[in-house]
Structures are given as C-alpha cells and as structure tokens.
Amino acid sequence: MYRPCTFGIEEEYLLVDLASGRVLASPSPAIARRCREVAGSYFAEEMFRSQIEIASPVFANLHQARSFFVEYRQRLNQALAEEGAGLYCAASHPSAHWRRQRPRTSTHFRQLFDDYQQVAKRSLLSGLHVHVGVPPGCDRMQLINRVLYWLPLLLAMSTSSPLWSGQNTGYMSYRRVICGEWPHMGLPEPLADWAAYQRYRALHQRTGALAKDGAFWWAIRPSQRYPTVELRICDACPQLEDALAIAAVFRHLVEQCALAHYSPLPLSREQHWITQENYWRALRYGRHGQFLGVHQQQPVTAQAWLAQLRSQHPPDTADAERAFIHGLNILEHGTSADRQLSCLAEARGAGLDSAKALHQVVAQVLAEGRSSASGAKPLP
C-alpha cells in the first residue's frame, strides 16, 4: 500500500546586529554559544561565522513542520535579541560586505575556500532545502528527471535576493546567479538513471574533480547520506508559511512522480532546454516572468504554470491542497523579493538616502521573521 513520503527542511540564516542592521562578520562567543544551546542537535555550521543552519527532524505532515520551525525560530530570535542580534531569513542581505566576512575554520570549509577562492568568498547566501524520502526501489535519477521541469516554478515562488552590495541587481534571485559561479550547482546533468549517475560520479572521482565523499550541489540532487531527493534551488523565505507551502508542493510532486505508473523515460534534450530557459526567467523575473508551459511550450504566467502543475498532479491530501492555495497567493501578491523592492522604493520616495533605505529593507525582513516565529498562521 502506498504511504505518503516523509520530509525534512533545512533553513539557513544570517546573524545581524539589530541596531545597525549589519551582518555580524564575527559574532561574539556569547551569540555563538546561545545558537548552539537553543538549536541543540538541529544546529549546523555554514561557510561563514555570520551564518547558521537549522536542519529539522523527519516530518510526516505539515503540522509537525510548522510547529518545529515556529518554536525554533522563536527561541533563536529571543536568545539572539538578548545579545542585540537577530535572525535574517532572506537569501541575501541588501548591503552586506562580503569581503569582511570571516570563514569557518573547520577542515571542510577551509577546503572549500581553498578550492573555490573568490567564488566561495562571495557566497554570503541563504537557501531553503527540502529533503523528501523516496520509496524503496524508486530510481532517484529517473525521479529527478520527472520533477525537474517544475523546479523553476518553485524558485519563482521563493525569490528573496534582489539586492546585493547596496544595489538593485535586476534579478529576483541574485543568489542563484552567484550559485552559477560554482561547479555542479545549476540544474542536474540529464542522466538517464541511477546507473548513469554512478558512472558520472565515478568519472569525477577518478579524475580528481570530486572527492570520494564529495557531493554535487545541483538545484535538486540525490542525497549521499539519506534515501531522499533534496530540493536546493529555492531562496530562503522570511515568511515561514511561504517555506512550508513550497516544501509541501515539492513533497506532493515527488510523491506523485514516484508512483509506479510513471514510465522511466530519460529527460529529453528539448525538456532540458526548456527547463534551462525557465530557470533563467525565474531567477531574472521571479513571479513576473513569462514561462514556457508544459503543453506545446506555450507562454504562461507563473500563476497559470502553477495551475498546470495542479492539473497534472492534483492534490490528494489536505497539506497539498493548502500548499497550492498558498502558492497561488504568493504568485498573486508577491514574494520577499517583491516586498524588499517595494520597501526600498517607498523609503527612497520618502527622501531617505540609500543607506537608510537599505536599513528599512533589513528591518522589514527581520520583522517578517519575527512574525513567523511568534506563531505562523496555518495555510488556509
């Protein structure tokens, strides 16, 4: 009998000074200690000392995920506020100076900075990652090929990085632009099945391009540690309900595509080209883009594209139904990127200089994160 897939969520956050709104390049020992104490076994370090990650336990439903992240966002915000700091949940900080950031000194992160130099140093970015458990016997690369077409839509729903180094970049997800500077961090290779993936991985290990325990950082990938597929394309979401809706839509999509009646067809070249184009449009325009639809590649809005996903994979649980409703709300009313740009424009229109206007954006993102932590409203 078919059972719903379990899932887990990872959220990355920057640590900022509440008074100035600046990223804490060197958080105090007290701040670092409080983060570890509050998050416990769910705490994970990230590339920079100014960044942390919360990696959730395994969830069976959206209620569990909401309860967990409401609690841990709230506890972290309260602990950090006592030290004059806050939790910044968007994918990029509008005015952070990446040159001032301090890298982590563990062996793993030292190796990353040694290998990738300025590309690594510039990557002061936060993402939303979602793991979904895959049923035994399901070929994870074939599954990835089935869901890949829809991933740019999930990016469009999550965009939160339009501002970088004090500038409006013109991109709704500048995070994904910077991700493109890394090897193996774009869309996955169009590999036919798990055997092809293993050959691809072995070639990179044999030629020294990938360590024995190394991992690819694709927008979606098969986990090396768990029997999951991991969504990595999405920007971090200040509003918790946005993150939960995206996670639930992705989980539903994986469940539907893992069902046995789907034939194991490889990803065609045309599908890969279309997905690449939609990916670029999503990171450039976000929800405002015109995308290539699933039927005859006709132009569609993001809302119509989500409707196509819903039609092709109808929701069969309350979690999925609510996630589609909230997803449509995001696409109709705006993502964090839209709100940041609107806040910046209003601040500049009110006569604030660039620095003060960017500070307003930081304050807005912090407020959204605190609001989510005080008790996110369930999806409608």
UniProtKB/TrEMBL annotation:
Annotated GO MF terms: ATP binding; glutamate-cysteine ligase activity
Name of a matching Pfam family: GCS2
Transmembrane intervals: none
InterPro entries (alphabetical): GCL_type2/YbdK_subfam, GCS2, Gln_synth/guanido_kin_cat_dom, YbdK
Reaction equation(s) it catalyzes: L-cysteine + L-glutamate + ATP = gamma-L-glutamyl-L-cysteine + ADP + phosphate + H(+)
EC number(s) reported in the record: 6.3.2.2
GO BP, sorted A to Z: modified amino acid biosynthetic process
Keywords: ATP-binding, Ligase, Nucleotide-binding
Family membership noted in the UniProt record: Belongs to the glutamate--cysteine ligase type 2 family. YbdK subfamily.
Its job: ATP-dependent carboxylate-amine ligase which exhibits weak glutamate--cysteine ligase activity.
Protein name stated in the entry: Putative glutamate--cysteine ligase 2
